[in-house]
Amino acid sequence: MTGSALVKAAREVADVAAVHAAASEAARRLVPEVARAIVGAGFARHFVPARWGGTEGNVTDSLLATAAVAEGDASAAWVASIAASLGRMATFLPEEGQRAVWGTGPDTFIACALVPGGEAREVDGGWRVSGLWPYLSGVHFSEWALVCCPVPMPGGEREVRFLLVPRSAYEIVDTWFPVGMRATGSDSLRLADVFVPYAYSFARADLLAGRSGAPLPAASAVPLKAVSALSFAGPVLGAAKGALREFSTALAGRRAAGAPGHRVSGTSEAAAELALARTAGEIDAAELLLRRAAAVADAGAIDDRALARTSLDHALAVDMLAGAVNRLTPLAGTRSQSDSAPFQRFWRDVNTAAGHTVLQFEPAARAFAGLALEA
Fold first, then answer.
1. C-alpha–C-alpha distance, residues 235 and 74, integer Å
2. CB atoms within 10 A of CB 30
3. What is the 3-state secondary structure (H, E, C) of the chain?
4. How far is Cα 175 from Cα 180, in angstroms, rounded to an integer?
5. CB 3.0-4.6 Å disulfide test: which of 15, 18, 247, 294 passes with 59?
6. Which residues contact residue 170 at a Cβ distance below 8 angstroms, ignoring those fewer than 6 apart?
7. Inter-residue contact 100 to 200 (CB < 8 Å)
8. In degrees, to the nearest 5, what angle opens at C-alpha 63 toward C-alphas 75 and 95?
9. pLDDT tens track of the chain, all 375 residues?
10. Alpha-carbon torsion 130, 99, 35, 9, what sign?
């Protein structure tokens, strides 16, 4: 499946996700029909090496496909993006670990706990691991999971590593009760004295640097900071487009109703039209920033200055998108705030997603300014 095919398939996923959005929110996880559509569209295989049957695709196609899904449902797009990005992360596993994940096919759904946690003790051939890890989006549909854990290494030193565990080894704990992005199913994972062999692990430092002892696909051989925020920014971009579409449809409907000089939530129609135009422009500008950042990641060979620039692009784009949607909210009308209205779901999802730690503007801005001001 080519990248352009993924984007085309993503539009079909968006339609399925939109139909089931209310049911997914009520369940606080995607309904199975949406999860199957995500895998069927090719998200899980997008970054998987070709030798395992994967697409070995690029970052730009992943961004655009994720944004397309989010125009139907941002939670579905978030899970689709995670499914793709975890295929990228698993390329850092040794051969034995990759074979366990993809030996029977490239469409394996992986979940991941990015924040270090848990405890590990060294045993013959690996570690025995226990602990609780939060925020594993899509974990209910996962076949494997990667958890980040400080582990003892041969020789006595400790190292933070990602550890691969099969679905049979972990318990899912119901902990996800957010205001927005409700259907991502980002519950917690618990391990109780689970054996993880050395070959089912890789160093977090390698992932951060985009390096490995074995050859990596092009999309993997870049610093994590160049791509990780794009995984979360894509859903925000698509959700902002969805919010603008719903706002425009509602405004056009009120105009067609034929009330001359009508007011929208106590504000003139002209104010709503100005907000619509400015929001459309800001969404376009944010998309250009994200496309530029994705193109930099796809080109590879990213130095510190380029990395600071792309990190700023990620954060600034999401800041603009959240501000643009929030501008529309007080002008959207009472019906748009109904719990059955797609607009309010897009609004909640945009603001919840924009709060992710890797999308914050201040740290990205300060890092960029620090390098820009160097003599």
1. 5
2. 30
3. CCHHHHHHHHHHHHHHHHHCHHHHHHHCCCCHHHHHHHHHHCCCCCCCCHHHCCCCCCHHHHHHHHHHHHCCCHHHHHHHHHHHHHHHHHHHCCHHHHHHHHCCCCCCCEEEECCCCCEEEEECCEEEEEEEEEEECCHHHCCEEEEEEEEECCCCCEEEEEEEEEHHHCEEECCCCCCCCHHHCCEEEEEEEEEEEHHHEEEHHHHHHCCCCCCCCCCCCCCHHHCHHHHHHHHHHHHHHHHHHHHHHHHHHHHHCCCCCCEECCEEHHHHHHHHHHHHHHHHHHHHHHHHHHHHHHHCCCCHHHHHHHHHHHHHHHHHHHHHHHHHHHHCCHHHHCCCCHHHHHHHHHHHHHCCHHHCHHHHHHHHHHHHCCC
4. 14
5. 294
6. 145, 189, 190, 191, 194
7. yes
8. 95
9. 445 899 999 999 999 999 999 999 999 999 999 999 999 999 999 999 999 999 999 999 999 999 999 999 999 999 999 999 999 999 999 999 999 999 999 999 999 999 999 999 999 999 999 999 999 999 999 999 999 999 998 877 899 999 999 999 999 999 999 999 999 999 999 999 999 999 999 999 999 999 988 899 999 999 999 999 999 999 999 999 999 999 999 999 887 776 554 455 555 788 999 999 999 999 999 999 999 999 999 999 899 999 999 999 999 999 999 999 999 999 988 888 888 899 999 999 999 999 999 999 999 999 999 999 985
10. positive
Cβ(135)–Cβ(113) below 8 Å: yes
Packing angle, helices 59-70 and 269-299, rounded to 10: 150
Residue 158's identity, in one-letter code, is R
Buried b (16+ CB within 10 A) or exposed e, 203-228: bbebbeebebeeebbebbebbbbbbb
